[in-house]
Write a structure and sequence with these properties.
heterodimer; A: alpha/beta; Rossmann fold; 6-stranded mixed β-sheet; 4-stranded parallel β-sheet; 16 helices; B: alpha/beta; TIM Barrel; 9-stranded parallel β-sheet; globular; disordered C terminus; binds pyridoxal-5'-phosphate
């Protein structure tokens, strides 16, 4: 397998550093610091300690007995990132980046957020390690993820509501980049997914790979062998790459990336399924865009998936057909949420519910001997209001 | 020699500092852009920077974001911009530089872009989000069609990095005056002159300074050390304030005239026209 990314930050045709000159020196410095830290035993020890003592790792790999029985096919396991402190996998990454920020002597963290989970995870580590913190969030998302807005404020972060463009994750990221361009000397930009300019896709993947490394050990303890299928939802792709990366050399294992099908044609956020190669937010990757290269408006009920791009490494593995991408629409995702809630007593985030919903169609077609792992990337408390209004008041 | 290089040679011969106004093509519509470009040329603009609007302009402040939104409302695309340049070229002789983000160009196709730009009468291109590290592919095409690809340097660029970027420079180098996005500002950084002098001393091409230059006073400050002043948001602000008014074109013209007069009033950097530094050994 090639070492990815290459020294210029490219994943084959994808990736790179498509940013304003003002940011180039900061990206080069971050790359240098990260490359030192990942070989530095003090840094690694500090990170492992926080993963264990603060995030609560390792998270369980739960055998889903009643879901398995209900679906009537392969055995289903759940990787429980919903049990991470703050309720989603996002904190695996923010802890790592905050430690880098400390090394670099930065005082201020900024972040973009869609579902609010990455914003909460950044605000949390800022409180833990003593940074000031500002989080950019589209106005549409501050409404549909109101509980997370309150959490961020309680954690001492300043919320910056973004009223430009479609007022969702893409616009929050534009605004965060603009802030970073302006305050780059003392500010560290904590990107929340495996997107953005090099070295972010690499370092976010590495910080999230703890998910896949644990899964590999745990499934062998449960089953004495590796799984046949890995399923994860994809917004930018960090929970997916985190689960997949350690398994990439095992070519027999199927990896399924579930994108947001939204309301169907023209109203979705499935960049790999429906997009074209393009350049957005600093990297070359699949992007939903029109024929003149303007970025498309997207829709997903899950704010964390409501993004017109995807991490460049996923674009690369998609082209290599090492991962397979599928889509799940809003209504199916809500069904997925309900299914996991009723069978296992776990209410997944709407994002994660996309992975559950796809599993519900795949698992019945597989033999009982097959093993499937679903990444439950987060818990669904933040989504109850939007699911209730999606279903109508009395639907539950 | 390209038209841009030619323009700087003539400016230097006259002992003058260039004025490079920026407007977004299609803001508020193409007919107005056509009239604005002609008016700016008449009032003393030396090079025209035409913005190609993009939906996600990450290096732009609110003023130019709104300008791009207005242009995109009626679907301004690269093809429309080329059409505009073709029409302008029937009577306009000063250089035209396209300024924008990479995705619309990438989607259009680098080779096709360079060929069509040249054929329309474009002289150079500047992609804000295409640093030299990623620019090779497009630069091959723009070089082949003798278009100047303009690179940027910023206050954050180290001397070492500046040398790397300058080694690839053609036309001129665009020095970003402020650590920040585009937009009008009350004051320019105190160390701006020092920074520009330092770059100019090692640059094989002229140095234009832009981002944040909002008034005749700023232009004068920049003109003391640079080869050209680039003004964008201040003009877009006048356009925005004149929306729906019959006097938009003369109002923009008056601003250009004021800026040009200010630039003419001051001494050019004393080494202009004598020692443009020789190309660096890379
Ligand atoms: C719970 C959860 N899962 C998934 C995602 C999507 O992000 P990614 O694809 O980077 O994992 C988000 C993003 O906010 C999220 O909150």
């Amino acid at each position: 397998m090639p070492k990815l990314p290459d020294k210029h930050g490219h994943f084959g045709f994808y990736g790179g550093r498509y940013v304003a000159e003002t940011l180039m020196p900061a990206l080069l410095e971050l790359e240098e610091v990260y490359c030192q830290c990942r070989r530095d035993s003090t840094f690694k020890r500090e990170l492992r300690a926080l993963q264990r003592e603060y995030i609560g790792r390792p998270t369980p790999l739960t055998f889903a007995a009643r879901l398995t029985e209900r679906l009537g096919g392969a055995k289903v396991y759940l990787k429980r990132e919903d049990l991470c402190h703050t309720g989603a996998h996002k904190i695996n990454n923010t802890i790592g980046q905050a430690l880098l920020a400390k090394r670099m002597g930065k005082e201020r963290l900024i972040a973009e957020t869609g579902a609010g989970q990455h914003g909460v995870a950044t605000a949390t580590v800022a409180a833990l390690l003593g940074f000031s913190c500002e989080v950019f969030m589209g106005c549409e998302d501050t409404v549909r993820q109101a509980p997370n807005v309150f959490r961020m404020r309680l954690l001492g972060a300043t919320l910056r509501e973004v009223a430009s463009g479609s007022q969702t994750l893409k616009d929050a990221m534009n605004e965060a980049l603009r802030d970073w361009i302006t305050h780059v000397a003392h500010t560290f930009y904590v990107i929340g997914t495996v997107a953005g300019p090099h070295p972010y896709p690499m370092l976010v993947r590495d910080f999230q790979s703890v998910i896949g490394r644990e899964t590999k050990k745990q499934i062998v303890q449960h089953e004495g062998r590796l799984p046949d299928y890995l399923i994860a939802c994809v917004g930018g792709g960090s929970n997916a790459m985190g689960l997949f990366a350690p398994f990439l050399p095992e070519t027999a294992i199927h990896m399924v990336a579930v994108e947001a099908g939204g309301l169907g044609a023209g109203q979705n956020a499935a960049s790999m399924a429906n997009g074209y190669a393009g350049v957005l937010h600093g990297s070359k990757t699949y992007v939903l865009q029109d024929e003149t290269g303007q970025i498309s408006a997207t829709h997903s009920l899950a704010p964390g998936l409501d993004y017109p791009g995807v991490g460049p490494e996923l674009s690369y593995w998609n082209d290599q057909q090492r991962i397979r991408c599928v889509t799940v629409q809003d209504a199916q995702a809500v069904e997925g949420m309900r299914l996991l809630a009723e069978t296992e007593g776990i209410i997944p985030a709407l994002e994660s519910a996309h992975a559950v919903a796809y599993a519900a169609t795949l698992v019945p077609q597989l033999p009982a001997t097959a093993i499937v792992v679903i990444n439950v990337s987060g818990r669904g408390d933040k989504d109850l209001q939007s699911v209730a209004s999606f279903l109508g008041e009395n639907a539950l | 020699m390209t038209r841009i290089a030619d323009t700087f040679t003539q400016l230097q011969a006259r002992g003058e500092v260039g004025l490079i106004p920026f407007i977004t093509a299609g803001d508020p519509d193409m007919e107005t852009t056509f009239a604005l470009v002609h008016e700016m040329a008449r009032q003393g603009a030396d090079i025209i920077e035409l913005g190609v609007p993009f939906s996600d302009p990450m290096a732009d402040g609110p003023t130019l974001q709104r300008a791009a939104e207005r242009a995109l409302q009626h679907g301004t695309s690269l093809s429309h911009v080329f059409e505009l340049v073709r029409r302008l070229r029937q009577s306009l002789t000063i250089p035209i530089l396209l300024f924008g983000y990479y995705n619309p160009i990438w989607r259009y196709g680098g080779e096709r872009f360079a060929a069509d730009a040249r054929q329309a009468g474009v002289d150079g291109v500047l992609c804000v989000d295409l640093p030299p590290e990623e620019a090779e592919e497009l630069k091959r095409e723009t070089d082949r069609h003798d278009l100047d690809m303009i690179f940027l340097l910023a206050p954050t660029s180290s001397l070492d990095r500046a040398q790397k970027v300058l080694a690839r420079a053609r036309g001129f180098i665009y020095y970003v005056a402020v650590t920040g996005v585009t937009g009008v500002r009350a004051a320019l950084p105190a160390d701006l002159s020092d920074m520009v002098r330092r770059i100019r001393a090692i640059s094989p091409v002229p140095v234009g300074v832009g981002f944040g230059i909002s008034s005749a006073e700023h232009a004068v400050q920049v003109a003391g050390v640079a080869d050209a002043a680039i003004v964008g948001s201040a003009i877009s602000q006048v356009i925005e304030q004149s929306l729906g008014r019959p006097d938009m074109v003369p109002r923009v013209g008056a601003l250009i005239a004021e800026l040009k007069t200010a630039l003419r009033s001051i001494e050019t950097p004393n080494d202009i026209g004598t020692t443009i530094a020789p190309p660096l050994q890379s």
